[in-house]
Amino acid sequence: MRLVIDTNIWISGLLWRGMSHELLRLAEKGQVTLCLTADTLAELSRVLGYQRLQPRLKQLGLLPADLITYVLTLTTLFEPVETESGPLVAADPDDDIFLHCALAAQAVYIVSGDQHLLALGEYRRIPIITIRDFLSREFSTLVIE
Questions:
Q1: Nearest-CA neighbor of 117 among 132, 128, 106, 102?
Q2: Measured in Å, how far apart are the chain's first and last C-alpha atoms?
Q3: What letter would DSSP give residue 144?
Q4: Rounded-to-integer distance, Cα 141 and Cα 135, Å
């Protein structure tokens, strides 16, 4: 099952335990396929460089490059599909990259913690849901540590 996860979900899963981390573990086991484009990967890389995340990275003994390498082992890269002119997410056009990625990957879900994306509800029949909703729909027996 192909998924696009937004940067919030990636950061949470990479740096902390919880539902987002469990989603990454599902990808490790091959139970889901996480999809990226060059734009979504660049966004993740940029956010991993934020000063406010550096103490957590230091605590974990990791560099942003370490995490990007790990991300690349979990993902399939796609060329983005841009089919419409103008912003798709009017409140935050930077979020369009996740919609383009989902369309290119023919994703089953976009899993997000971003209110602008969640407010859309879906894009081209691809549901946009929270991590909690995704796990309860698709992996209801999963025990979160």
A1: 128
A2: 23
A3: P
A4: 9
Does the model's pTM come out above 0.90?
A: yes
Digit-coded pLDDT (tens) for 84-124: 666 666 556 678 899 999 999 999 999 999 998 999 999 99
Question: CA-CA distance, 109 to 91, in Å (whole number)?
Answer: 21
Q: What residue segments make up the domains of the chain, in order of their start?
A: 2-138
Q: How far apart are CA 56 and CA 141, in angstroms?
A: 30
Pairing of strands 109-111, 126-129: parallel
**CATH architecture of residue range(s) 2-138:** 3-Layer(aba) Sandwich (3.40)
12-60 tens-digit pLDDT: 999 999 999 999 999 999 999 999 999 999 999 999 999 999 999 999 9
C-alpha–C-alpha distance, residues 88 and 77, integer Å: 21
